[in-house]
Amino acid sequence: MADDGMLLNFAVGDQPWAPKTTAYKGGRWKDRLTAKKALQYGQNKNNPDYKKENDAKNDVRSGSNFEPRPFKRQRTDGGEYKPTHTTGRTGPRDNNNAPRQRPKEVISSLFTYNPTATTAPVEEEEEVEDAEPIQPSNAPLSSELDTFTSLGLSPNVARHLLEKMGIKAPTAIQAKAVAQLVKDDSDAFIQAETGSGKTLAYLLPIVQRLVTMSETARKANGGTGGLTRDSGLFAIILAPTRELSKQISTVLESLLGAAHWIVAGTVIGGEKKQSEKARLRKGLNILVATPGRLVDHLEHTERLDVSNVRWLVLDEGDRLMELGFENDIQKIVSLMNLRMRKVQQTPIPGLPEKRTTVLCSATIKMDVERLGNITLKEAVSISAEKPRDAEDAEKNGHAFSAPAQLKQSYAVVPAKLRLVTLAAILRRSFARKGSVMKTIVFMSCADSVDFHFEVLTRGGQKKITGSEAKEERKKNPELSDLDKMNPITTPAKKEKEKELSNYEKKLAPGKIRQGGSIDDACTEAISPIISGKDNDVSIFRMHGSLPQNIRTSTLKAFTNNKDASVMICTDVASRGLDLPNVDFVIEYDPAFSKDDHLHRIGRTARAGRDGRALIFLQPGNEEGYVD
């Protein structure tokens, strides 16, 4: 291209040219920082201005332009030097004359906010000697008023209740339910307060009618042809939790001692499904189950025949709905209806012509009413007679079915005093041997249960429970299940501890291993804090995170323990469980609802016995809980 005479002028300024900065990417941040500093050092070394500044700093440090420090003026008064402010000891101290200085006190607290309680403490009222004793609302009736034989039970069953189970007379709800269900085939809704005997209220009519049917068939066939395990499944009992299912099964097995030819079984979550299928193949007459596992067997176990089922019992209906079993119950009812239509039913003498559904609940809520609409048809309501106060309260929408003989109280305790208050109350309760046999402490979560179990049993003997410990003791008879801190040493546990130690070595300083603070099999221990000189107190723990076999063995050990004991647990033990000799219930963490509170305190004051309940509240908003 030809030159057209155009000139270009660039203004570059008087400053020296700066090299282009290089951006380092990739690699570790330490390597990038080292490379960046090396580049800056090379650039500054070639910069004349940086050299001048650096030389000036070196001259100041070397002392070329630095004046020396002047000498101190000599004292002319000849006196001894005494500093105005003493910063430390310069010589030997006379302990006799000089006052001893105390170290500075430093207080550190996790609880920086402690609101004051608005509730004034109430002094205990003196008991009036002439006051009439409170009549228990869930006690058995007098044997002169009602007997089991007058309700329609056979003398053999009534004799078994008296001699083998120690039950002399029915409770109010048992008297009404047995009389209704033995003679009538309609659906029923049983409502009664906790501890009133609802389990026997629906078990007795079922067992009695099966006994009558078996005797009728035996007489018709000349002494043969009675009820056997191959006759079919006639009753299904649904419970919300595994623990309640186990308890119902235990009561049922005890009751079937009067009719040993009736076979009962359980299917619950946490057990081996193959063993349950084997029991179903052999044949059962009464089945106790949880809804989820029963749906599984109805869909995958062909041997489970429900076409002859004549009773469907839903125990703890409110809890079934709270745990989300509504869809499972709908599926169970629909599958049973479908299979009953496919098989042309032949009437069985002594049994209902159609399926009878029984719904049991201690409270009436919208969920329970919805469950009743799903399962019940033209149901009869069965409830014990209520005192006038309870009827008035229900009309006002504040029905509360706590036993009349239960003494309830509450304590307003700041957060930092809760643990020491709990320990003091438990120690005082078990101070005298025999004053309190068993106590249940309810907490909000499994972590809280484990923490308080570890604190209250620190330094005490811990015991292994469950089938794993039994197997280890069979393999190694020299092993002891009691040790001061380490409950049991097994080859499996040694291998686990070795893996944990290698893992902890790799952790950074200050890091804490998460989980595994307490061995799952260790659920029972002696508490040195609560125990007295002549009264050793055992502490148990139970929550939903424990394996099913450990929960079952722990509950059994607590029930069979003859000495003073405490159960620290979550709400997994608050529904339907009949734990004997529970005198005291402590709610360390308040329940989320009034119904949950009702079921918690219902573990004591059962079947007419006395009981106490205490709830811990923190100052402030929680004080309104009692309203």
Number of strands: 16
Main sheet attributes: strand count, strand direction, barrel closure: 9 strands, mixed
Q: Could you list the spans in which at least 5 consecutive residues all have pLDDT below 50? A: 387-400, 475-493, 507-516
State the CATH topology of the largest domain: Rossmann fold
Overall geometric form: elongated
Strand residues, percent: 5-15%
Q: Compute the CA-based radius of gyration.
A: 38 Å
- Under CATH at level 1, the class of the largest domain stands as Alpha Beta
| Widest sheet, order of strands | 8-16-15-9-14-13-12-10-11
What does this 3D model show about the protein?
By secondary structure, this protein is α/β, with parallel strands linked by helices. The chain has two domains: 149-395, P-loop containing nucleotide triphosphate hydrolases (Rossmann fold); 406-500 and 517-626, Rossmann fold (3-Layer(aba) Sandwich). It has 18 helices and 16 strands. It has helices at residues 29-45, 48-62, 155-163, 172-183, 198-220, 242-255, 273-282, 291-300, 317-322, 326-342, 366-375, 388-395, 418-429, 446-456, 467-475, 491-506, 548-560, 594-601; strands at 188-191, 235-238, 264-267, 286-289, 311-314, 356-361, 380-383, 406-412, 438-442, 462-464, 482-483, 522-526, 538-542, 565-569, 582-587, 611-617. The strands form two sheets. Strands 8-16-15-9-14-13-12-10-11 form a nine-stranded mixed β-sheet. Strands 3-4-2-5-6-1-7 form a seven-stranded parallel β-sheet, with helices on both faces. Helix 17 (548-560) links the parallel strand 13 and strand 14. Helix 4 runs parallel beside helix 5, helix 5 (198-220) packs across helix 6 (242-255) and helix 8 (291-300) runs parallel beside helix 10 (326-342). The chain starts with 28 loop residues before the first helix and ends in a 10-residue tail after the last strand. The model is unreliable at 387-400, 475-493 and 507-516 (pLDDT under 50).
